[in-house]
Design a protein that fits this description.
The protein is of the alpha/beta class. The chain is built from six helices and five strands. Helix content is about 40%, strand content about 15%. Helix 4 links the parallel strand 3 and strand 4.
């Protein structure tokens, strides 16, 4: 099973990037073929329809191909002002915008429809970014993704990881593993 994992932060010391790495390790141990995508590796500007009319950026097409190629995804979402980040919104907006005149990407939902998506969050706060997931889930459902019912928000993320980026609390690690396993389980059954 091909599993795509990415975080909605490009910050060097990002808790969500660290959580993505934990999820990737657990998924690899479960036998998944994991792609850990860094959004910083994509050259994607702020969405603007005038810019798009000149031509969809090459990295947006690359992103669409990566998304389409993976039946299961895990998104690690930071929380800004009770919602998900502008980076994540911008990324998903570009990925879901149809490419005019291109039959392959004529449907905006093409990279999304039928994907199984597990949601994780991490924040230094007590709720762990849980509220960001409450906004992210309907966006994904609207794009015809299956959002896994198990989610996990890691609170007090500032003290949750050791120097190697591992979660020190076994219960938290198990919760991440449960989301990963549920996505792998469902993606195997829903894959066309
Ligand atoms: C503009 C802004 C708003 C924020 N709002 C929230 C919030 O509503 N809830 C929360 O738990 N943390 C909030 N934070 C703190 C982030 O959770 C924290 O910066 C976190 O480290 C971001 O994720 P990252 O470590 O993956 O980059 C906010 C941070 C910023 C910059």
């Amino acid at each position: 099973m091909k599993l795509l994992i990415f975080a909605g932060s490009t910050r060097a010391q990002s808790f969500n990037r660290r959580l993505a790495k934990v999820a990737a390790d657990l998924a690899s141990q479960a036998g998944a073929e994991v792609t850990l995508l860094e959004l910083s590796s994509l050259n994607i500007p702020l969405y603007n329809a005038d810019l798009e009319a000149i031509g969809t950026p090459a990295d947006v097409i690359r992103l669409k191909e990566i998304l389409l190629d993976h039946p299961g995804w895990i998104i690690c979402s930071p929380e800004y002002n009770g919602s998900y980040t502008a980076l994540l919104k911008n990324t998903l907006d570009w990925a879901s915008s149809p490419v005019k005149g291109d039959p392959r990407w004529g449907q905006g939902s093409e990279p999304f429809a039928g994907k199984v998506v597990g949601l994780l969050a991490a924040s230094p706060g007590a709720l762990g970014g849980l509220r960001s997931l409450q906004h992210l889930a309907p966006l994904l459902s609207n794009l015809q993704c299956w959002v896994a019912p198990q989610q996990f928000a890691l609170g007090q993320a500032g003290s949750a990881f050791d120097a190697d980026g591992q979660l020190t609390n076994d219960t938290q690690r198990t919760r991440v593993g449960s989301v990963v396993n549920q996505v792998l389980w469902a993606a195997a059954r829903l894959m066309p």
